[in-house]
Structure formats: C-alpha cells, structure tokens
Amino acid sequence: MSEFRQVVRRRRMVRRYDGRPVDPAALDRILDTARRAPSAGNAQGQRFVVVTDPAVRAAVAVAAGEPAAVARGLPPWLSSAPVLVVPCVRIGDYLERYAEADKRASRPPDDRPVPWWWVDAGQSLQLLLLAAVDEGLGAGLLDVADHHALRAALALPADVTPLGVVTIGHAADGPAVGSARRPRRPWDEVVHWDTWGSAVNHPDGRCPESG
Ligand SMILES: Cc1cc2nc3c(=O)[nH]c(=O)nc-3n(C[C@H](O)[C@H](O)[C@H](O)COP(=O)(O)O)c2cc1C
C-alpha cells in the first residue's frame, strides 16, 4: 500500500495526548502542507491561528466548553494538547479575487449551493490532519461552543471566520469513542457508477475494498 494511503488510513481523530511537546520543525511542516491546499481562483482564503501560549490555550479550551465537558466526566481534550490550530476563512479573499479582471466574467464563488470558501476550508483542514499523521503525531477537530469567546481569545478581526479547533500532539492510546465507533458506510452505499440508480457500483460487479 502506498505511503499516502497508509497515512490516510492511520488518521483518526485524536482526543488525548501524552504530554510530550511537538517538535517546532514538524509543526512548521504541517502548516506548510496545510497552506498548499487548492482554492477557487487560487484565492487562498485559508488562515491558521497557531496557539501554543498556555494562557491563550486555556482561553480557547474555555471557549470550546472543556470545563463543562470535564465536569460531565470526560477527560480533558484541549488542555492535554500542546498545540492548538484554529483554521479560519477570510471570505473577502474570494470576493476580491473574483472581482479581478480575469475572474469578473466567472460565476461568483458564492453563487452555488456551497460557496467555494467552505470547500477550500475543508481541504486545508484535511491536509492539516493528514500532515500531522505524516509527522507521527495525532490530531483532532472539535467544534467550539462559544464563537464569541474564541474570537476574543484570539483577537480575530471581524472578517475572519474560525471553523473550530484542531488539537495536535503525541497521541495517547485510547479506544475509539463516540461517533468514531460507527462503522464505515459500505462501498455500495457511497459509490455510484455512471448514474445514481445504477444496479452496479463497480464495472467488475464487486467492491474493490472494504474496511
Ligand atoms: C466537521 C467536523 C466536526 C467535528 N466535530 C467534533 C467535535 O466537536 N467533537 C468530537 O469529539 N469530534 C468531532 N469530530 C470528529 C468526528 O466525530 C470523527 O471524524 C468521526 O467520528 C470519524 O472518526 P475518525 O475521524 O476518527 O475516523 C468532527 C469531525 C468533523 C469532520
């Protein structure tokens, strides 16, 4: 199996870290990989706020609701991670790019069911997670309960939208929890060949891979 496919298969959301620090050079490589995601019109509206300062990390953990989660009996997730990365989107980059001469005749990036900036955000987010695995680290994404508190903790400008928080560190062993225990949907359900209602999901009439 190719190294790329192994990295993809190894990636799971990591919610516990063992306290070891992250090599700053590895963190640089992870961020450099994430910023290479493709983007509509090459607008590159992705931004990353990297948080290693203990006070800012604590404020982000509060914004994400960690104290309440710990009070409910869950182990601390964010505060066990030495590095937090908040991926953000600056929509203005797209509006500005599509107002440029070579793009003015194109369909605007928000004139579609899903604006391109959210597509691009997901791409850079996935690269961030995979690059962490490629460095032998673990990473996890979680939602933030209080976006106002997150914005305040990071001093985000009004035109920058945070997506959530990515935790990065050395993974502590632990069983799959919550949603991760759900089985992967079978190939037949996910892959449609030629047309949605086609009787076959692969020209060979079989599913090439499972698991
Ligand atoms: C957009 C997005 C938001 C997520 N938010 C959370 C979250 O708030 N808390 C959490 O524990 N996991 C969160 N997850 C992790 C998913 O539960 C996880 O990706 C899924 O169960 C599959 O497990 P795996 O990533 O380990 O393969 C999120 C994942 C994505 C892609």
Short key terms for the protein model shown above:
2 domains; 12% strand; binds flavin mononucleotide; NADH Oxidase; alpha+beta; 211 residues; five-stranded antiparallel beta sheet; single chain; globular
How many strands, which pairing sense, and closed or not: the largest β-sheet?
5 strands, antiparallel
User: Mean pLDDT score, rounded?
Assistant: 93
**What is the overall number of helices?**
8
Give a count of the beta strands, DSSP E runs of length 2 or more. 5
Tertiary shape = globular
Small molecules bound = flavin mononucleotide
**Low-pLDDT stretches:** none
Query: How many distinct folded domains?
Result: 2
> What structural category characterises the helix and strand content?
alpha+beta
* Proportion of strand residues: 5-15%
Using the CA coordinates, give the radius of gyration. 19 Å
Order of helices and strands: HHEHHEHHEHEEH
What is the CATH architecture annotation of the largest domain? 3-Layer(aba) Sandwich
By CATH, the superfamily of the largest domain comes out as: NADH Oxidase
Q: What percentage of residues falls in helices of 4 or more residues?
A: 25-40%
